[in-house]
Specification:
Layout: H1 10-21, E1 28-32, H2 39-51, H3 67-73, E2 80-83, H4 94-98, H5 104-108, E3 119-122, H6 130-141, E4 148-153, H7 161-165, E5 168-171, H8 177-186, H9 193-201, H10 207-213, H11 216-230, H12 236-250, H13 255-280, H14 298-315, H15 321-336
Parallel strand pairs: 1-4, 1-5, 2-3, 3-4
Helix pairs in contact: 8-9, 11-12, 12-15, 13-14, 14-15
């Protein structure tokens, strides 16, 4: 991966350029934003630029030819530590953080191989519990000379206040549809820009979601879900059972199941926001083309959006998916039909 082929997040790239130029780079960064928009890749490219031995220290660039760059591409460079939860687990574990022979804190304190610095990328930072986060604090407070840590999550509010206060928070927005379409074409996920544009418009700026939409069964689920959500009168029992059965029978346990729930709530929020826009412009819109939700008052629409956003946040609190679905569908139906 090179900066030349990286698409999107120009403001964040400009910010890091200026920070390097003025020698004001923090030791810990918390990258937040939706899944699948490039936060991990951005952190990797910043790390690659900092470790490259053939480019100036104050420039956000890498040569892609030196031994360091080659090792980084092969994921074998000892000065870049990548940490993520194991696939069969739902969280980053204590052992991954503090193991005396291979834990993150131990690895960071080993002298850099290249002589420049050690860099750690901690993915799935949303899954860090209080015990793991507290174990990181000493390293964050007193990092080894030159060491930099990137925490990758979806929201700063899912991190302990002590982690937030010791981190430079960098917020990432979903990719623009045109950017995502370009990315889809460059990754051979669409045969034309027109096909990519259709896929991008349904994917909320996320490459991860675009990959899911290539599965015909997911498209079938989306169409049925939207139809049930728009049904009047709303069938609470039917909607709840439909979502629960799909999540239980069609999606793998653990993180895949939670990611699918996030999509459900993101899709619902997008539908509600369209309805909110139509409601505000009701006098200029054709009644036939309006969402059923657009006939609700602004206060009700706002409550539904807030409820759905809260339900999405509950996913990262490791509340049982079935409990989240049941609580959300019941309250959603109650508010919508009040």
């Amino acid at each position: 991966m090179q900066w030349e082929s990286f698409i999107g997040h120009k403001l964040q790239r400009k910010w890091f350029n200026n920070a390097l130029k003025h020698h004001r780079l923090a030791s810990t960064f918390l990258f937040v934003g939706p899944n699948g928009i490039g936060k991990r890749t951005f952190a990797y490219l910043v790390a690659k630029s900092l470790l490259c031995t053939e480019t100036p220290d104050d420039e956000l660039t890498c040569c892609n030819r030196c031994e360091t760059c080659v090792q980084l591409e092969a994921q074998t460079h000892p000065d870049l530590i990548y940490l993520a939860r194991d696939e069969e687990k739902t969280r980053v574990t204590m052992d991954q953080i503090v193991n005396e022979q291979s834990g993150l804190c131990y690895e960071l304190r080993i002298r850099p191989y290249s002589g420049r610095r050690k860099i750690a990328i901690i993915d799935d930072a949303d899954t860090l519990e209080s015990e793991q986060s507290n174990s990181l604090l000493k390293t964050l407070e007193e990092p080894p000379p030159g060491a930099i840590i990137f925490l990758i999550g979806t929201s700063e509010h899912l991190q302990l206040s002590t982690i937030r206060s010791r981190s430079q928070i960098v917020r990432f927005a979903p990719l623009h549809s045109a950017e995502l379409a370009e990315l889809l074409v460059s990754n051979n996920m669409a045969n034309s820009l027109q096909e990519a544009a259709v896929l991008a418009n349904n994917s909320h700026g996320s490459l991860e979601l675009a990959k899911q939409f290539q599965d015909s069964s997911f498209n079938d689920f989306r169409n049925q879900f939207v139809a049930r959500l728009m049904q009047r009168p709303m069938n609470f029992v039917g909607l709840c059972k439909f979502i629960s059965d799909h999540v239980k029978n069609e999606v793998g346990d653990g993180q895949p199941r939670r990611n699918r729930l996030r999509w459900i709530f993101d899709e619902t929020t997008a539908i509600l926001r369209v309805a909110l826009h139509q409601r505000v412009r009701a006098s200029h819109a054709s009644t036939a083309s309006m969402s059923p939700f657009a006939f609700l008052d602004l206060n009700t629409l706002t409550k539904l959006i807030e409820l759905t956003i809260k339900a999405r946040e509950d996913i990262s609190r490791f509340i049982a998916p079935v409990a989240i679905i049941e609580a959300w569908t019941a309250e959603f139906t109650n508010i919508a039909q009040a």
